Amino acid sequence: MKKRVLPILCILLLVSTVAFAALWRQEAARNENTLRRMWLSAASSGEHTITDCQEAGAEFPSCQVIAELRVMGDICHLAKGAGPDYTDLNAVYGILSLYPERCSDVTKELLLVFQTSSQEGLDGSNWPLRVNELRNILEYGR
Question: Which residues are CB-neighbours of 46 under 8 A, at least 6 positions away?
Fold first, then answer.
C-alpha cells in the first residue's frame, strides 16, 4: 500500500506542476499584450492630441500630453525594467510636469516621440533615441 502512494503522489505533483507552468505562461503572455496595447494607445493619443490642436490652430493641453508620457514611462518600467529608456522618459516627464509651459517650445520633438513610439511599438529602437534627444533639449537647450 505504501509503495503505491508515493508514485501516485509524485505523478499528481508532476501533473499539477505542468498545469501551473502552462497557466503561468498564458497569463504572462496576456499581460505582455496588454502592456503593448496600452503603450500604443498612449503614444497614439499623444500624437493625435498634438496634431489635432495644430490643425485647429489651438494650443494643445500640456497636461494631457504630460500624462501620456507618464503612462508610457510606467509601461516601459513594467515591461523592460529601470533601464535608460525609462530613465529618459521619466526625466522628460519630470521636467515637463515642473515646467508645463515648456511643452510649447518642444512641440515638434514631442510629436516625433509620440509618432515614433506609436509606429515602432514598445520594442522599437528609434523612440528611445527621440526621447533622449528631447531630454537633452529640455535639460541643455538647443
Answer: 64, 65, 68, 69, 72, 110, 113, 114
Q: How far apart are the first and last CA of the chain?
A: 81
What percentage of residues in the chain have a pLDDT greater than 70?
96
Please say whether the beta carbons of 92 and 114 come within 8 A. Answer: no
For CA atoms 133, 135, 45, 86, the dihedral sign is positive
d(CA 88, CA 12): 49
Residue among 34, 32, 33, 106 nearest 69 (CA): 106
pTM of the model: 0.77
> What would the grid cell of residue 119 be?
509606429
